[in-house]
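Page 47, continued from p. 46.
Same chain as before, 230 aa.
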Amino acid sequence: MVLKIVRTVWPVMLTYVAIGAPCGMIMGQTGMEPWMVFALSSTFVTGSGQFMICNLWLAGVPAPSIIASVAAISSRFALYSASLAPHLRGASKRQTLAVAATLTEEAYGISLAKLVEGEDWGPLESFVLNAILIATWGVSCTMGAVVGTVVDVPTAIAGFVCTSLFICLLFSQRLSRGNVVAAVSGAVSVAVCKSLGLTNIAVPASVVVGIAIALACDAVFDGRGARDAR
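Result:
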């Protein structure tokens, strides 16, 4: 079973190595020892959150703002777990908790596709998949932290790895009115906050503003379309 899962997920594992190593370098520059990097990377399973923690910490952002920012971008995991729940109805509470507590974005996509397609896939396979990806991410980050102690990699270069990842995710999204409005309004809100000196709340504020304006825009246009149809 493990070999079958590895054959399925090895492209994602290579991606984790490419992204995890720079993340580990940044974590090392914050003063974390390699064992600390491995411990955090193996328990805090949102890579984007780790990038955000390190970059905001190096920028001198207060801890409450860091917590709010990471909590905002990590809240999506509640939706991931909720969408998997209907496909794991035959599993015990302990099994579903194990899957939900170790879920990563990539593992979620693979598990959901397997479950929807009706393949021979259950909570055990989902948990093993999660464990393999978490181990790969933890080892990759630790390797980056070790290399960072030997090779001086500029923080800006290593930090841009996560930024470029989000840029790729943005352009891979379906081009819709809501997505465009959310991206533009979020960027504008960050610029406004920084121009007003509100650097500490720029990131969480942009998330809330972007989502709120996009939802309001969709509600207005969808309602107008329904009235026109009538």
